[in-house]
Design goal:
Blueprint: H1 2-29, H2 39-42, H3 54-66, H4 69-77, H5 82-109, H6 116-123, H7 126-157, H8 162-180, H9 185-203, E1 213-214, E2 217-218, H10 219-236, H11 243-268, H12 288-295, H13 303-311, H14 322-346, H15 354-360, H16 368-384, H17 388-424, H18 428-431, H19 433-451, H20 459-462, H21 466-487, H22 493-520, H23 523-554
Antiparallel strand pairs: 1-2
């Protein structure tokens, strides 16, 4: 029964954020203008800059930022107890993520769809731009390399998810062509969802597996190569052809998944077996403060969202006022996914008793995606009576499709960054979309196989840096938005307060991890962590200098 109260209070908080707080921020602080000519119209090219229906764009934005992170983070962080995890997800969504995502969309649309790193030059200065873009590229490199590993491992461990994952791409290509020919969106959506779930059902009967060894590489490594070939092609296609319809269908698929999970909670009324605050943590468990706030990123606030908002989403914004629907409501959707993940891994659907739950969660890092799929499938079975195997396939496919859409957008965003570098440093060769894409994919594969050997899992080596680096990037994004507001003589407290909280928590987490890496003798992570921390300090100092200079001139 406790799970129902968690869900009701959590959703009530996020709905309050959407109907009240987001409206206040949109109208009074960002002052979104329906008559402002967005980059999608001003720079329309039919490939990257395309005015898009806000519902379709919401689907793209939501599934691009979600990935597997709002599942992985909460499923791990619940180890400290479900209460702190729920509180951070709900309040993070209301006051941090929604403002961050909507703000990044608004700021980018006001600067011709530039990425957050590039527009930092216009708002703060050239030095900030260079520092910012280093962090952005590092985050994208980590996300793309790691999500390639995550999807590949899912294909190997759950071959029944392979067919529906690739079928979703075929469905998206067809829907993209039909929508281009002015077919109605709603019927296409319904047909797409039906075909997708039919493929999920079929996938359980036609599992697809690669040979254990092919071309001298493991099945896992071959899947990684195939995925990056696909991502390279997808990143060069016009957004209306694959990116938009695929992400929209995946967004609708997620809504179905959320309906199944939340519906199962209200039907079965499961009890919570996880502790509200875990007093039986392992001896080597790090402190909940600050680690909770970098473990749960997506689902509360995440720097990666700013990259997507200012990368692909801002280039498709039809009206500036759509930024509230796409950005803030996208954050609410992700918060809802994180909330139900906490319920799925905290209740009887995963562990029948507190003792059994502690066996599953014996150390920080236990549980994760496997716990979500197991707990979620059992929850759906208890609530709806669907077979556990079929429910597991649904959830596994959902995770794979989310990771895949994030990887699609991530490679495209890397291409944008490289093209921006070509423009900034006057290197015409890097302005070419094909060359920029090849460079982006080459960097990912170099990390995957150069650092990870024939397994292709090199991205996992630097993945421990993601938590603190990602949140430092979120604070830097909020800082750029804040400086922009100050220059426009608008209240900046609504972005400065969350920025300050996030940078303090992320910086402390980075310091803790720096010491940990040093004691482990992992000098690569020591170097990269130190670089990110130094860059964040320099960006903060540069921004403070600009703010002081502006205030002196305005006095």
């Amino acid at each position: 029964m406790a799970s129902v109260l968690i869900v009701l209070l959590g959703i009530a908080g996020m709905l309050l954020g959407w109907f009240v707080y987001s409206k206040f921020i949109a109208e009074r602080i960002f002052q979104l203008d329906p008559n402002f000519k967005t980059p999608a119209h001003e720079l329309r090219d039919g490939v990257d800059f395309v005015p898009t229906n806000k519902v379709v764009l919401w689907g793209h934005h939501f599934t691009s930022v979600a990935g597997a992170a709002p599942i992985v983070g909460p499923a791990i962080a619940v180890y400290w107890g479900w209460v702190p995890a729920v509180l951070w997800v709900v309040f993070g969504t209301m006051f941090f993520a929604g403002v961050h995502d909507m703000g990044a969309l608004w700021a980018s649309s006001r600067h011709k769809g530039k990425s957050m790193g590039a527009l930092a030059e216009d708002v703060i200065g050239k030095r900030t731009r260079s520092l910012f873009m280093v962090v952005v590229f590092l985050v994208l490199l980590m996300v793309n390399a790691v999500f390639g590993v995550v999807i590949a491992k899912s294909f190997v461990s759950q071959p029944d998810a392979v067919f529906p994952a690739w079928m979703a791409i075929a469905v998206a290509l067809v829907i993209g062509q039909l929508l281009k020919r002015n077919f109605s969106l709603i019927p296409m959506c319904v047909v797409g969802i039906i075909v997708l779930y039919a493929s999920v059902f079929a996938g359980s009967y036609i599992p697809i597996e690669l040979p254990d060894t092919l071309f001298g590489l493991s099945a896992n490594a071959n899947w990684i190569i195939i995925l990056f070939i696909y991502a390279a092609i997808a990143s060069l296609l016009p957004v209306w052809m694959l990116l938009q319809p695929r992400d929209f269908i995946n967004g609708m698929q997620l809504l179905v998944g959320l309906f199944l999970l939340y519906g199962a909670v209200f039907v079965s009324l499961p009890d919570i077996t996880a502790p509200a605050f875990n007093s039986q943590t392992a001896v080597d468990t790090p402190s909940i403060i600050p680690l909770l706030f970098v473990t749960i990123a997506c689902g509360a606030v995440s720097g990666f969202h700013g990259i997507v908002s200012s990368g692909t989403s801002s280039k498709q914004l039809d009206k500036e006022t759509d930024a509230r629907f796409v950005g803030y409501l996208g954050a609410v959707g992700e918060g809802c996914l994180a909330l139900v993940t906490i319920v799925a891994v905290s209740g009887v659907a995963l562990a029948a008793s507190p003792e059994e739950w502690h066996e599953v969660y014996s150390h920080l890092g236990d549980g994760s995606v496997a716990a979500f799929i197991t707990g979620g499938a059992n929850l759906i079975q208890q609530g709806w009576g669907l077979p556990v195997e079929f429910s597991s396939t649904i959830l596994a496919t959902m995770v794979v499709l989310f990771a895949g859409t994030t990887m699609d957008s991530g490679v495209r965003l890397q291409r944008y960054i490289i093209q921006e570098w070509g423009d900034i440093y006057q290197l015409p060769v890097l302005k070419n979309g094909v060359i920029a894409t090849l460079v982006a994919v080459a960097c990912c594969l170099l990390l995957a196989f150069g650092a990870g050997g024939s397994s292709g899992s090199g991205g996992m080596i630097i993945w421990p840096l993601f938590g603190s680096t990602n949140q430092i990037l979120a604070s830097m994004t909020l800082l750029v938005i804040s400086v922009m507001l100050i220059k426009m003589k608008r209240p900046a407290i609504y972005t400065l307060v969350p920025m300050t909280f996030v940078i303090v928590m992320a910086f402390l987490a980075g310091i803790i991890k720096l010491k940990e890496y040093y004691l482990e003798g992992n000098y690569l992570l020591v170097f990269l962590d130190a670089v990110v921390l130094i860059v964040s300090v320099l960006v903060m100092l540069e921004s403070w200098s600009v703010i002081r200079k502006f205030k002196r001139q305005s006095a």
